[in-house]
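Journal club side-thread
Mid-discussion, someone asked how the predicted structure for our own chain would compare to the paper's figures. Pasting it here so we can look after the session.
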Amino acid sequence: MVTTALCQPCLFLPCQYHFSISKPYVASKNASSAFYTSGLCFTVKRRSGHLSTVISAATKTAKSPAEEEWKIKRQLLLNKKVRSVEVNEAFRLQKENGYVILDVRREGEFKDYHPKGAINVEIYRLIRDWTAWDIARRAAFAFFGIFSGTEENPQFLEDVRSKLGKNSKIIVACSAGGTMKPTPNLPEGQQSRSLIAAYLLALDGYTTLLYLEGGLYAWNKAGLPVEYAEE
């Protein structure tokens, strides 16, 4: 397959230089299978009688375990016998068998509502810093109409370790849940925040892991107990 790198500009700054940030992707020659990569591309052009490209550089950083291909994550989870649990069964396990619900949504989502007794460690958090790289990522999110851009929480495992020992029995939960079950349209299932979190926890040595089928949407829809963070 012949591939061609393409870019779409997403930020322009009015100054001496024309500075654009773009999200590179690769498409097949017939453009039938385009996909985005995880890097951003910076292009700087000097404003003059004609524009000439001065800088064009990819900013791809080293891949973290959370960015591993889904099929690799899925295979490890299957090997570790991580499975889904339906919401009513999860509620029973929480009450009767000492399971802890680990809500990996963002802190703001957790405060809106969460299963009673759940603890929160966000796997992705709002972008916090204001380095050139962070500004670029904010701009990339804004280009797609997303003004609350997120980044991987680098303290995720450290925060979990401070709250839950390696022998803890954990049900990982996020909004939608994801699935490892194959379907005609998704032969490898579909990853989610909870499945990414379960993968990281399995790599870190946690051995009793389940993930909430249907996520917290299903929990809420079933009318199971929820609580709200105090202001």
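Post-session note: The chain has seven helices and 15 strands.
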